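Minutes, project check-in

Agenda point 3 was the complex the collaborators sent over. CS summarized: two entities, 489 residues total, and the question is how they sit relative to each other. Sequences were read into the notes so everyone works from the same version.
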Amino acid sequence: MSALANNRGLRASHVCFSYGSRQIIDNICLELKPGTLTALVGPNGAGKSTLIHLLQGRLQKDSGHVECSSSITVMPQRASIDWTFPITVNEMVRLGGGHREHQPEVQMAKQLLMRVGMGKLAQRRLSDLSGGQQQRVLLARALMQQTGVLLLDEPCSAIDPPTREHLLSVMREQADAGQTLLVSSHDWGTALDSYDKVIVLDNKLLAYGTPSEVREKLSDMTCMMGSNCCG
Amino acid sequence: MDEAQIWWLTPLILSLLIGVICPATGSLLITQRRILLANLMAHSVLPGLVIALAIGIDPTFGGLISGLLGALVAERLNQRFKGREESSMNTVLAGFTALGVLLVPLLQTRVDLETILFGDLLAANSSDLIRTLIATSVLILLLLTRYQDLVFLGVDPDGAIAAKRPVTQIRFVAIVITALVIISAITAVGIILVIALLCAPVLMHIERSTSLRQLILKSAATGLALTSGGMTLSIAVDLPPGPVIGSLCMITLILKRI
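CS then shared the predicted structure for the full assembly.
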């Protein structure tokens, strides 16, 4: 994976973004090192998806800089996909590649589907899958792009704990292989131990560090986040 | 055979072609959730057609410009009324139709409004055929060169933009093709009924198809059967083909769902 060899992570400095009079992202500075799996947590409306779009470059920052040595892939939220579109699992994953009939990409799509546990359902119609299976397909499509940085927007929403564990284990393998991953999530408590670093966001950066550091720093955050955390 | 004996040949070929390209275009429009825009454009071509006929130029140009103008006005209003797009688009649809109807007496044009609204397949001529062949060629070219982008745009529009696919260009070409197909279909089914051929065959297959390609082929085959069946029936019972095809689309869709 040449993209991973050149990956020097991602650095954001003083990023600000407002919508109308509301400040959505307020002076965020962060660094995602290569080969790390980072959780981006915060309450609904904290600006997690907005920050992901700003880092990717889809949204224009009001101010600040984002430096990234490699391309960035985003695994979108469920709501942005038309799940009723007539497409098979295999074709959906191959959309992540550039050349539709290119043999290495055909093979790679097959391998990725096996990795996310969807190998046997490659020819199934996307709309016939469960929510968890659809999330696995989206992850496989994101991995197909082989970029140095992968930003995942709530990949574990509305899925059962075993599927969550499986997706996290695939993400961990990617991080171990050198990819930089940022995962927006509603995880809290011990569930954060699956990640190397945790960013707590509520329009501004509340905490950044290892899971234990963040828990210590924001021990009262559980009340703010509510008790409906996965894991 | 002399010309009098083969009068039916042009309408027949035209109806078959329209039966194929309307559902093929409809497959793209429905999967990209732009069918309301297509209906709006079908009505928006009317003022342009009337003006073109009044000043004696090819109605294709007038209809194309007017249809694109309708789409442009709707897109502008949609940006202003986010979340209320259906309302603004239906207003533009009604406004352009009303404008077209008003232009007939205002410009004192010799236009048979009923023919434009509901079609008159038996009056088809070689110009209609050429127009339809051009629309077919442009559609095939888009499908051959941009198939994967069309799939990406349909299943994940935001992802297609993020992946730097030529989304704006593809949407523009799709709008132009829609306008061309609608203008081509006027003789066959008219601007009011063309929406039935754009939608019904696609709805019959969209839940079972496993690819956009399969959906286009199945819908086109069904559209072909519906137009040829509708035309045969209209000749047999001596009724206008457009309304017969429109009714057949709805009845077949209902029967298929039952």
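Noted in discussion: The mean pLDDT of chain B is 91.
Follow-up: revisit at the next meeting once the mutant set is ready.
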